[in-house]
Amino acid sequence: MTKNVLILGASGSIARIVVQNLLAQVGADITKLTLLVRHPQKLAGLDLANRGVQVVQADVLNTDHLATIMAGQSLVYGNLYGADLGQQAASVVKAMHQAQVRRLIWISANGVYGEIPGAYGRWNQAMLGSTLTAYADATKVVEASQLDYTLIRPAWFQDEPEVDYEMTFKGEAFKGTEISRQSVADLVEKLIHDPEQLIGESVGISKPNTAGPAPRWYS
Prior knowledge:
Blueprint: E1 3-8, H1 13-22, E2 30-37, E3 53-57, H2 63-70, E4 75-78, H3 85-99, E5 103-107, H4 118-128, H5 130-143, E6 148-154, E7 156-158, E8 166-169, E9 178-180, H6 181-193, E10 201-206
Parallel strand pairs: 1-2, 1-4, 2-3, 4-5, 5-6, 6-10, 7-9
Antiparallel strand pairs: 8-10
Helix pairs in contact: 1-6, 2-3, 3-5
């Protein structure tokens, strides 16, 4: 089924991989790909010369403008960050309801439920601090949204050229300490192509066999 896909925060490190991988499919499985960014220059290096690709400069906190952009979209993938992430999530949810778009894929963070046991949980909390609070605020908004959402809670990112991951679900202890950006992008792309998967789920994602007090690259 062809679809229109809106990516919020399209210049983010995960979103750029997703965009790069989806570009070849615009005009086939994807009818239109809309990339929302605050700074379009951050998309430099991506080949966006496709009539099915639209770059929109906008602020997600402008709810009415955002709802206009969302009109006719099949699904929304949010790759946002910031101290006001809870407010951003609230604006996205409100705009989706206004535009009558139901499917949302949202990047959160590991630790938003206090679901990481042991030393790594303490390290993660200390390292993320108020950033984790912002992700937790946004997670609560998405979970209360009555939308068809999937929350993705990645471990700490690394850049190995691999797709290798396992998932945990809300209520389960988080596994692992790290995850490749390629792996997170792979899960996002699977949900874009088959949006009936994992509706209403909050999914932790990490590389198998990476348990420890901190990611192995941390010193």
